[in-house]
């Protein structure tokens, strides 16, 4: 099962600068474990205590997984997962 994962700039140091990588898994959790096996350290930037980190947004085919089953969201061959860190701040 091949799943395309789009990687934000801030995490590309884990993927040798690649904007997108392939992964496998029946759930988002399994996908992150597979990614970590291929790109060590990336999972801990995405997951904390078995859940998505608070400031990490993940989209499955453009749908926010927090409104699906979170890290337990089921995946299918050909799906696209986009990881986006939340950005806050600005100038006063």
Q: What does it look like?
A:
With 92 residues, the chain is α+β, with helices and mostly antiparallel strands. The chain has a single domain, classed as Roll (Ubiquitin-like (UB roll)), CATH 3.10.20.30. 17% of the residues lie in helices and 27% in strands. It has two helices and seven strands. The strands form two sheets. The chain has a five-stranded mixed sheet with strand order 2-1-7-5-6, covered by helices on one side. Strands 3-4 form a two-stranded antiparallel sheet. β3 (47-48) and β4 form a beta hairpin. The longest helix is centred in the middle third of the chain and has 11 residues, at 28-38. It is globular, with a radius of gyration of 13 Å.
Which terms would index this structure?
92 residues; alpha+beta; Ubiquitin-like (UB roll); five-stranded mixed sheet; two-stranded antiparallel ribbon; 2 helices; MoaD/ThiS family protein; MoaD_arc-typ; Mopterin_synth/thiamin_S_b; Sulfur_Carrier/Prot_Modifier
**Shape estimate:** globular
CATH class: Alpha Beta
Count of distinct strands: 7
Which spans of ≥5 residues are poorly predicted at pLDDT below 50? none
**Count of separate structural domains:** 1
> What gap, in angstroms, lies between the N and C termini?
47 Å
The fourth-level CATH homologous superfamily is: Beta-grasp domain
Main pleated sheet? 5 strands, mixed
| Strand arrangement in the largest pleated sheet | 2-1-7-5-6
The CATH architecture: Roll
The Cα radius of gyration reads 13 Å
β content, as a range? Answer: 25-35%
SS class: alpha+beta
CATH structural fold name: Ubiquitin-like (UB roll)
How confident overall, as mean pLDDT? 92
Protein name: MoaD/ThiS family protein
InterPro entries: Beta-grasp_dom_sf (IPR012675), MoaD_arc-typ (IPR010038), Mopterin_synth/thiamin_S_b (IPR016155), Sulfur_Carrier/Prot_Modifier (IPR052045), ThiS/MoaD-like (IPR003749)
Pfam family, one: ThiS
């Amino acid at each position: 099962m091949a799943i395309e994962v789009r990687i934000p700039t801030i995490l590309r140091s884990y993927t040798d600068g690649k904007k997108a990588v392939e992964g496998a898994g029946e759930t988002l959790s399994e996908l992150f474990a597979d990614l970590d096996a291929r790109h060590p350290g990336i999972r801990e930037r995405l997951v904390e205590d078995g859940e998505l980190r608070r400031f990490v947004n993940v989209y499955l085919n453009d749908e926010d997984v927090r409104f699906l089953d979170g890290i337990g969201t089921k995946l299918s061959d050909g799906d696209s997962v986009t990881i986006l860190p939340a950005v806050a701040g600005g100038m006063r």
